[in-house]
Amino acid sequence: MTVQKNILKVGKAIHRIDARSKVRGAEKYASDYYGQNLVWAGVKRAGIPHARIKNIIIEKTKNLTGVISVLTYRDIHGSNRQGVIRRDQPVLADDKVRHCGDAVALVLAEDQAVLKEALDLIAIDYEPLPGIFSIGKALEQGAPLIHEEHPGGNVLLKGDLKTGRGEAALEECDVVVEGYFTVPYQEHAYLETEGGWALLTEDGHLEITASTQTPFRDLAEVAEALGIERESIRIRAPYCGGAFGGKDGITVQSLLALAALHCQGRPVRMVWDREESFIAGVKRHPGSLHYRLGAKADGTLYALSAEVYYDTGPYDHLGGAILALGLEHAGGPYRIPHASIRGWSVYTNNPVAGAFRGFGVPQVAAAMEQTMDMLAAKLDLSPLEMRRRNAVHRGDKTPLGVTLISSTGLAECLDAVAEHALWKEKERWKASAGSSKKRGVGIACVMHGMGYGPIVPDYANAKIELTKKGAFRIFCGVVDMGQGNASTYLQIAGDILNQDMDHLELVLPDTEKTLPSGSASASRTTYTFGNALIGAAEALKKRILQRSAETCASDPNDGLTMVLRPGSVFHPPTGKEIPLSQIVRMLDESERISVFEFRAPVTQERPTEDENLRLHGIPHRIFSYGVHLAYVEVDELTGKVEAQRYLAISDCGRIINPQVFEQQIQGGIAQGIGYALCEDLVVARGKIQTPNLSTYVIPTAMDIPEMESIAIEKQEETGPFGLKGAGEIAIDGPLPAIANAVADACGVRIFHAPLAAGRVLTALEAKRGGKEVKA
Amino acid sequence: MKISFTLNGKKIRVDVPPDRRVLDLLREDLSLTGTKEGCGTGECGACTILVNGESRLSCLMLAAQLEGCHVTTIEGVSSAKKLHPVQEAFIEHGAVQCGFCTPGAVLAAIDLLQRNAEPTRQDIREALSGNLCRCTGYQKIVDAVQGGSAKLKKGQTS
User: Could you report the predicted ipTM of this complex, rounded to two decimals?
Assistant: First the structure.
């Protein structure tokens, strides 16, 4: 049966379908459109962190040859506000600017050179306002307000959660440790900066092509912000050149739409350069965290107090939801009967923080997992034993008091680490360090919730069409930002419909063709859409086989015995084979299309009566789990830390495509190593001092060690083919695993990330001098 | 200014301002958008092209510098039907995720393998250290370059 050889079977490491066009340079990204008669659009940015706008002086710019139009907030006829939960971010600043990257004016020009000159000519007359550049300042009594109308003042969202007797139970512990941690900003640094193009068609339709994770949500935001009918907007989302959360929400979309309205039907292009991407794009939330963790003498965790502060910059941009997810994960994947978990997401005039792979979890995992090691040391337990004694199993309650009713494979991950050579041989490896080198090994346990939580509907609508040529066309509702979910969708459809690649087609997200299916985010992309796709594919398969039997076989019950083959329907009893291109003629247009909606299940438990926290996502029902292990070597002379080996053992349910899964894990680890060791966005009085890739250093091929990824393939009953989310969990582990390894190597803990050479050297010197370390 | 050079095996003559970036000449004027812009300042390697067989950053080159040169962009690496062995290896080893760094990485790898037919993993990591990738963690790219090396060797001996 050679014909069966190329069937896209679930579980096989099928090569991604997008890889071929990408290696040829043929794939068209949003920034690859130039077109005829193109207009270039660019943005004048605020340049200062907090000020009232008195006047925007554009006359000189308007008169410049080659300038088509200069637009300000006065040209916007909608709400001029965008945002996912709280719509607090202007398209173009009106009353005031709230961070250096705020967009103040939009210029349309004939070419790039004129555009640059025109932007330089715009002058803005400001009345400077006192800036808020730290969480502490923002929370001070009488602090200047960034959003005067916000009822919470400078606090975007506050959370206060308590289980058992809360922090009071710390007094009943035999051992308590305490740590103050800080975590830095992290820049997404996707290779493709924010960009796209737009066009107002003759019949008044606004067509936007953008590098985005969220075309359907963008559509609603653009319509409201600009005061345009939703129906007249179309957004297309090609493959992104990386996104990682940084394109979860509006970047260029509203600006491009506004530009297109003033281009007399000409296409308009806007692509941010790298510096603009740094200045205007969102980042991972920096934060400070205060942890107190207590256990009984036998190593059983007993009480936790966690205080979590995130600097969200001047706009919501999911900063509330990110805090909420952080709080939900603050106690890690452990049984802790008593916990007080409090958090604040705070407005400042610093750069905007927003969604970034991990979504508030890497920060708390860094604090919790280091605190766990501190506690293990005090109890004279190995870090692994400490975790094994407290790891959650299915049916246990989380530190939030929510019962884990879904698959829970942490204990299996820990068992696998214990059996792994890297764990067993660690002491020998450490002992063989060269001169002036210290070696250490660290582990970290992580969990990561999937989906939007209990209130915001987490749904997807899959659509499949049997084409007239007898192929199956999959309408991909969720963006593929590089993680390969579009390929995975074809694999799922191929498996169910028994098809090879030659009989499958893909339509990328397009608000006019594909159906609303939520964002490419929250580790929910394949879970939610995959489940919808299974429903759509099964229904279409049933219909095709039934109709084939009715038409071609003597007994209509033969529908039960007919099978799909690539491009055909086969009847084993008679050996008869009918091409799908023939079957399709028996189906009405509407019957050739199958649509199915899937809505992710939510937990019914209510760990909090705070409706606002529930709206922001607390609690989740399904979690992935992982244990990370890092080998590091520290140069005692320079303080440089090198990650030399890395192991991640993950429970993300069953794996649909092992190669694509490994891509997610390896990529997450690499970003996490950057977060742990070298990525340091320096911000001074609201201004980014490292706005390019030469001063903000991300890992190169020289900085990432060989990584090993092992999947504990535990079946998640609600998942498509048993799968759980795998997109984010890998970034939760590296910072704590590496920080624990560095502490193991140096005998001193560094509470502030990144663990850059200077910081490590200072700690080593302080230790040598016998001083208390305040690195 | 009129400039003559060989682009992907074909002699061409273009009339451009001498200070036009090669990246813009390729992408905007010649519609070869496989060459990507990731930073514009020579840090990321997404705009890598081959000039006289050696990898160069097209965002840091001006059009006038191309006079008389042989230029290969990603579009010139393979024919429509047959991929270059390095491209095949990138697909097979899962070295492609978002794909934005891929053309530059493929060209840097081809350049490396021309100079060093059997590089070690460390050689590969050094040679590709100028090509930033934010998706893969590089391991599968290193696998792919090794795979490409093996394919090229096999191609020569068969």
Answer: 0.98
